[in-house]
Amino acid sequence: MQFLIESGANVNVADPSSYHVSPLHLAVSLRSKFMLEILLKNSNLDLNAKDENGLSALFYALGSPEIFDDLLSKGLSIDSVTSSGETLLDRCAQFGRIKEMEFLIQKHADVNKGSLRHSSMLFIQMIQKWLSFFSNLVQELLKR
């Protein structure tokens, strides 16, 4: 990989056959510290590259705190948004990933930054709790 980069390979070229992920996305998703270290040393690397869904490498790094911290230390924004305007917190809230939400909040993610639909992470969680409550209520009423 180092040889290819030194020979002029584009470190930001996206793979059209796999969601337009960049080498950075690939290194992060493979959890390859070796590949990541080589890429992060390159001054031409676009840290804010997004895949076809508008996901930055931070979205791919959520399950790996060490890689996540490496990316943050290089300047990636913890509050970056997808092409549909969702933040990392929005995504975690939608899927009930509480542990990841706590991690993001500890890393100072903006809990008030809403998506393009103007829904903050807190609002999404409230709605999910209410939906769960009403679903349980309806189930109980149907049993009667």
Strand percentage, roughly? under 5%
- Low-confidence region ranges: none
Helix coverage percent: 40-55%
Given the C-alpha coordinates, what overall shape results? elongated
Domain count, please report it.
Answer: 2
Largest sheet: none
- Provide mean pLDDT, rounded: 83
Per the CATH scheme, the topology name of the largest domain is Serine Threonine Protein Phosphatase 5, Tetratricopeptide repeat
CATH superfamily of the largest domain: Ankyrin repeat-containing domain
Write a short abstract of this structure.
The protein has 144 residues and is mostly helical.
Helix and strand arrangement:
Layout: H1 2-6, H2 23-29, H3 33-40, H4 57-61, H5 65-73, H6 88-94, H7 98-106, H8 121-143
Explained architecture:
The chain has 144 residues and is an all-alpha fold. The protein folds into two domains: 1-61, Alpha Horseshoe (Serine Threonine Protein Phosphatase 5, Tetratricopeptide repeat); 78-144, Ankyrin repeat-containing domain (Serine Threonine Protein Phosphatase 5, Tetratricopeptide repeat, Alpha Horseshoe), CATH 1.25.40.20. Helix content is 51%, strand content 0%. It is built from eight helices and no strands.
